[in-house]
Model the fold of this input.
Amino acid sequence: MTRQITIEPLTIESFQPYGDVIQLEGNKNVVLANQGTAKRVNYVAKLENLRETTGPALQNARPNMCIFSSAPRPTVGGRFEVKLLERHPYSSQVFMPIFQHGVRNSNPDEPCYLVIVAENGSDDKPDLNTIRAFAASSTQGINYKANSWHSPMVTIGQRVNFVVLVWENGVALQDCEEAPISPVIVDLSPSFRGLSKL
Done:
């Protein structure tokens, strides 16, 4: 029987087991900067490169700040099917949406991408009993903790560009490990309006 879950709103508190939500609203570390003309949020995400503390058997990694331009994923009847999760065993990974000219104009507070996560099981694979899906807007970034199982990026209804920061050394299984899973259906209808038109 196929597992089904319902999407949840992305909040700082709900995402804490998996990493950090990068946003201004609701953040406790806000200070004024630039002679009072800007708000600065300090320590908004815990950046990790565990290769430095794990031992000499691992090749050094360097931070890779890159841009992902993610095309919208297909949905059927207001649902998205998850078949694969991945993790970065030794690095956190930040995704921060950025504006791109030509992308459909929409309310920045409306969700535009999914954040799908699961805890690690006793078999060192994703524990599907813990899989969750969150609706994220273009005003929210995320930072996955190192070794946190998550779906590859899923955007809904439009292309979304992200600035991404991850530590990499070019060794495939040290940089990214993939795990095919039994399909999980995510009901998107609570968060994504008009999805049936997509």
Summary: Residues 12-15 form the longest helix (4 residues). The radius of gyration is 17 Å.
